[in-house]
Design goal:
Blueprint (H helix, E strand, L loop, with lengths): L1 H10 L11 H8 L2 H12 L17 H17 L5 E10 L11 E10 L4 E11 L17 H18 L6 E8 L2 H4 L1 H13 L2 E8 L16 E5 L9 H10 L6 H16 L4 E5 L12 H5 L4 E6 L12 E3 L2 E3 L8 H20 L8 E3 L6 E4 L8 E8 L7 E4 L5 E4 L7 E8 L13 E2 L2
Parallel strand pairs: 3-4, 3-5, 5-8, 6-7, 11-17
Antiparallel strand pairs: 1-2, 2-4, 6-8, 9-10, 11-12, 12-15, 13-14, 13-16
Helix pairs in contact: 2-11, 3-5, 3-11, 5-11, 9-11
The protein binds zinc ion.
Zinc ion binds next to loops.
């Protein structure tokens, strides 16, 4: 025993890459179940937060709800020396835009930006939704507490802002409450357009929609399972890119999928008790969420949500029918589970905002050669790079090699045909960028 220990000591490298970052445990432990419960309760108590509901009342309707959310962000900012830029971003949606817009309405998002010190224009975004609904999507007066859908995601976003406001980051983090989700994803569409217009460099969107239910319609009860939905490739890809994929691969390696794998890996590393499920689809079968408008605009974005949904508790008039209690009410929310998924978000926001950006212009070569080779543009602030590879049928980046502060590398004896490859940039504290899949080839 003793000998082995001594041997290990002597062979330990001086520089340890990829070490545990203890700040992540601070972040996880700082997320409060009690505050999340309070905030979900406050949001549910606005009666309805339907996008078309009353905006003048101070106690009921979406106007009161968004003013309260803005006040919370302002309060958080006041406690951190004005570290957040808080504002409304809004767009007028005209009556008849679709069947769910029965009158002209301002779709108003509440945005809070924690500005990065090194990359102020580079953003990682966490979103939840402000609005709620009942059975009839156009009923904007009935009680629609939307406790899980989506006060849970909204409360998680506010809580993540509280926790991360205590730290400083190189890249900017945005915490946003989006509106108009149930009427046709209008808030996300509006903010994505705003981002394009402002030239925001968005690393990705972590959209939280329903993070509070642990009792599924399938009979499964689990406070550890959760899902990360991501589309395979961006809908904005060009015909040339699509054609290149036939020959070089990448069908399951778009930017949103890399973000999903990042969240999966961070969770496995820092919250190993959780069971993240990578779901290889844009969203639930035929259903929608607010990450999609960002995907439509060419940005990476994933949906984080509970694994076991209960459809009697979503988009339902509150009632009892055949002994079943319908409605999205507080009683069905597991606040401790919402806390866990909030922590998942917070560590991923922090890791991406602390890590250097992913390398650009990653190219791969090695056709009819015994070794795959990669090259990339160096990233300012990266201490080294990490090449990842995996079998073509595997979902996660299971193999890796640290390759130092270089801009090209040959993986001896690794044949290009049998694996997929990617490159991540690693910062001085060991935190990594998302993996960049090669976008070019060379001989
Ligand atoms: Zn919904």
């Amino acid at each position: 025993m003793k000998k082995t220990f001594l041997y290990l000591l002597l062979t330990l490298p001086i520089v340890v890459f990829g070490q545990t970052d203890v700040r992540m445990y601070d972040i996880i432990n700082s997320v409060s179940t009690e505050r999340i419960e309070q905030d979900i309760t406050t949001l549910a108590n606005f009666g309805t937060r339907h996008t078309l509901s009353d905006t003048l009342s101070q106690t009921r309707g979406i106007g009161a709800a968004r003013r309260w959310i803005k006040a919370e962000f302002d309060k958080i900012s006041a406690a951190c020396n004005s570290c957040l830029e808080v504002f409304y971003q809004k767009d007028l949606v005209k009556e008849g835009e679709n069947r769910r817009i029965v009158k002209d309405v301002w779709v108003v998002n509440v945005v809070a930006i924690k500005r990065g010190s090194k990359y102020p224009n580079r953003f990682i975004i966490m979103s939840g939704d402000i609005d709620s609904r009942v059975s009839d999507p156009n009923d904007f007066t009935s009680d629609a507490p939307g406790a899980n859908d989506n006060a849970s995601g909204m409360a998680g976003t506010i809580e993540a802002a509280r926790v991360l406001s205590k730290f400083n980051f190189e890249s900017s983090i945005i915490f946003v409450g989006l509106s108009g989700e149930e009427q046709g994803l209008f808030g996300g569409k509006g903010l994505a357009a705003y981002a394009k217009e402002k030239g925001w460099d968005i690393v990705g969107v972590l959209n939280n929609d329903m993070i509070g239910n642990i009792t599924g319609v399938d009979g499964v009860v689990s406070n550890r399972d959760f899902r990360i939905f991501s589309e395979p490739v961006p809908p904005t890809e060009s015909e040339d890119q699509r054609r290149a994929r036939r020959f070089y691969g990448g069908e399951v390696d778009g930017i949103s999928r890399q973000l999903a794998r990042y969240v999966h890996k961070m969770t496995k590393t820092y919250m190993p008790e959780m069971n993240p499920m990578l779901i290889y689809r844009l969203d639930r079968f035929g259903r929608g969420g607010h990450h999609r408008p960002f995907n439509d605009a060419g940005f990476a974005g994933v949906r984080i949500m509970e694994a076991h949904e209960n459809y009697t508790q979503q988009h339902q008039d509150i009632r009892i029918e055949d002994g079943i209690a319908y409605g999205d009410v507080l009683e069905h929310v597991n606040f401790d589970y919402a806390k866990k998924l909030t922590a998942v978000n917070a560590i991923n926001l922090a890791a991406i905002a602390w890590a250097p950006p992913a390398p650009e212009n990653v190219a791969i070569g090695g056709i009819v050669e015994p070794s795959a080779k990669l090259k990339w543009d160096k990233v300012d602030g990266a201490k080294c790079y990490k090449i990842y590879w995996r079998y073509t049928t595997y979902p996660t980046w299971d193999n890796h090699k640290y390759v130092g502060d270089v801009s090209e590398f040959t993986l001896n004896g690794i044949v290009i045909d049998n694996y997929f490859f990617g490159v991540a940039a690693v910062g001085p504290d060991g935190l990594e960028s998302p993996v960049a899949f090669p976008s070019g080839v060379f001989r």
